[in-house]
Amino acid sequence: MEIHLQEMRKRAGLKQAEIAKRLDVKVLTYGPWERGGAMMSLEQAYNCAVFLDCSIDEIAGMPVLGPSEFRDPRDAELQDRLLDTARDFAGMSQDVAERDLPTAEGAR
To answer: Which domain of life is it from (predicted)?
Structure first.
């Protein structure tokens, strides 16, 4: 996995020393993270993402997914079934209402 930490840092307009200070680590600790020579903890990756205003996925070089791309493909089928059921129920309710309610003429 290719780390894109340097790219994200430069995009934010920060120098290694600046982000290292913000992360409360030494530049000698931070530099190898950018080069992929050392692994950071999940907490450190999260802190980097917060300071760099990006996601951990972006730092890791993963494509950024929109919310719809995280959905389970079965959700669409379930949603369709629920909508069909709601439409059927609404149609049945309308039939019942038309049958059981007095008409305007009968109400007089």
So the answer is: Bacteria
The encoded tokens of residue 98 equal 């038309």
Q: From CA 72, how far away is CA 62, in angstroms rounded?
A: 19
Give me 94's structure tokens. 């309308």
pLDDT tens profile 9-48: 999 999 999 999 999 999 999 999 999 889 999 899 999 9
Instruction: Supply the DSSP symbol for 55.
Output: -
Contact 23, 51 (CB under 8 A): yes
Contact (Cβ atoms closer than 8 angstroms) between residue 8 and residue 54: yes
Fold of the domain spanning 5-59: 434 Repressor (Amino-terminal Domain) (1.10.260)
Domain parsing of the chain, residue ranges: 5-59, 71-103
Please report the sign of the dihedral spanned by the C-alpha atoms of residue 29, residue 34, residue 35, residue 38. Answer: positive
